[in-house]
Design brief:
- The protein is an alpha/beta fold.
- Helix content is 28%, strand content 25%.
- It has a 15-stranded mixed beta sheet that branches.
């Protein structure tokens, strides 16, 4: 049964023992025709980051089509559906943003100044829908706490709140932890009578002039009729133009005084957002297996996040070439190279493309909670954002030094110093669910890369091709080494841990 038909039917702890390295004794470097193929890698990156898949938002047709694409690629390399089914299905929130407008004016008869979706602003991933034409009030970071209340000395009733993203560094964490997500800030604004919220993006992770998209907006419930927009910093500076304080003056005043500096704007904002929201939309991880030989009932799980942050309107596309089409490409190339290896793996390799990664890594949690038997999984290796960087950071040596040493030895033997060596690290992200139940885990990601996180310029043309090639070789060599059975990092105790 083809992958599209499957979607249609579906819809009606820790430390391991030291490993003996097979590579240093019996294995030679790959022959020339078994090296990673830059053409294959970039084809996957180009395809997945194209408009064909509309930013791969989990729960949408674009993601489903991307899942079909990766299945068809895996099938070429001898990967089979795990237990006869490619999909591990589950439900999640999905919000498709159809249109959004933002205009400003001072006097009712003024010409409205328009701002452009995808250039000046985007919507929060889980924004509500609605229309507002109202006065504006600046409320700092949007904090509503007895010890620090930025709504206390302004009248926010019936107004649009403009606030800063993030939280101030001078407040204790027991206060700021309640205002780190868009929904948390929006609920505070709504409690004080606001009808919508505009957030100025203060993050250092992207350019001040480029919009940044996100899916996760905080915990439920959904605020169905409360629009939430996020502007670039450059757009925020324009919005503050002609007001009591400029944007920078407002930031500095809060930082210097450690007191709220809220004030009413002269301007009015007119905004409208239209969305289609589904509280429980079907999605799924793609799970396949490349069978091993005599140790086929022991597994190495190889993962990569497939979903991204989607598309807003008809023109604001978040391609996700580095995040994480690059990681998916590395996984695909690993499958191709395993098929071409002279000596076939003894252990089976389970390939999993996660959905829901942009929603608190939901897909990896679902996988671990549903995959049986977990006690036969000897290691998890994840590919995350491997399209740019100075070197490859292999995270996980804090709890799994024996597994990390496998990667270190592969780097020394075959990859000429591709791997960054630094301080102790934890295997975070999708690996967290695996390490939680004692499965030794590594995350292969960039060191000093991923400079275009969740922005429209994360396109295939900005991938560092030689870096991607080197990262793929290190990743493959590590996975290949793990398939031979010398590494046995699971303790008896960890094999009895159950996922809750």
């Amino acid at each position: 049964m083809n992958a599209k038909k499957t979607w249609a039917l579906a819809a009606c702890l820790m430390l391991g023992t030291a490993s003996m390295l097979f590579a240093q004794t019996n294995r030679k470097a790959l022959d020339e025709d078994q090296q990673p193929s830059l053409t294959h890698l970039m084809n996957v990156v180009h395809d997945l980051s194209s408009s064909t898949y509309s930013g791969r938002l989990a729960g949408t047709e674009g993601f489903n089509d991307a899942a079909v694409y990766v299945i068809e690629e895996l099938e070429k390399y001898g990967v089979q559906p795990y237990h006869g089914d490619w999909y591990q299905l589950f439900e999640l929130e999905c919000n498709q943003i159809e249109t959004a407008t933002l205009r400003t004016y001072v006097n009712a008869n003024d010409t409205r100044v328009p701002y452009i979706l995808g250039r000046d602003f985007v919507c929060a991933g889980m924004t509500g829908r609605g229309y507002s034409d109202a006065p504006v009030v600046f409320c700092g970071y949007g904090i509503d706490d007895a010890s620090y209340n930025e709504y206390a000395h302004v009248d926010a009733q019936g107004k649009i709140a403009i606030i800063l993203s993030g939280v101030p560094n001078f407040l204790p964490s027991n206060v700021t932890q309640h205002y780190r997500t868009m929904r948390q800030k929006a609920r505070a604004a709504q409690r004080h009578g606001c009808c919508a919220m505009v957030v100025v993006n203060m993050a250092n992770s992207c350019s001040a002039t480029e919009v940044q998209g996100n899916v996760w907006s905080g915990d439920l419930p959904h605020m169905a009729s409360f629009p939430m927009l996020q502007t670039t910093r450059a757009c925020g500076e324009q919005l503050f133009g002609g007001e009591r304080m400029s944007l920078q003056e407002a930031i500095d005043s809060i930082g210097n005084s450690h007191k709220p500096q809220s004030f009413h704007f002269r301007k009015h904002f007119e905004l409208e957002v239209n969305t289609t929201y589904h509280p429980s939309e079907l999605t799924g991880n793609v799970v396949g297996i490349y069978p091993g030989t005599d140790l086929r009932n022991e597994y190495i799980v190889v993962g990569a996040k497939l979903d991204h942050v989607g598309m807003q309107g008809k023109t604001c596309l978040f391609p996700g070439a580095d995040d994480n089409a690059s990681g998916v490409a590395v996984l695909m190339e690993t499958a191709r190279m395993l098929q071409n290896a002279d000596v076939q793996p003894r252990r089976s390799v389970v390939f999993v493309l996660f959905s829901g990664g942009e929603q608190q890594r939901l897909g990896s949690q679902i996988f671990v909670s549903g995959f049986r038997p977990l006690k036969r999984v000897e290691a998890f290796v994840n590919a995350e954002c491997l399209g740019t960087g100075d070197s490859v950071a292999v995270l996980g040596n804090t709890y799994f030094p024996s597994l990390w040493e496998v990667a270190r030895n592969m780097d020394s033997a075959f990859c000429a110093g591709t791997m960054a060596v630094g301080t102790k690290t934890q295997a975070a992200g999708d690996a967290a669910a695996f390490s939680m139940v004692g499965i030794p885990s590594l995350v292969f990601t960039n060191y000093n890369g991923n400079r275009r996180a969740h922005v429209p310029s994360d396109i295939a043309e900005n991938i560092d091709r030689q870096y991607l090639l080197k990262a793929t070789k290190l990743f493959y060599e590590t996975v290949y080494e793990l398939t031979f059975g010398d590494y046995q990092g699971r303790s008896s105790r960890s094999k009895n841990v159950r996922f809750e």
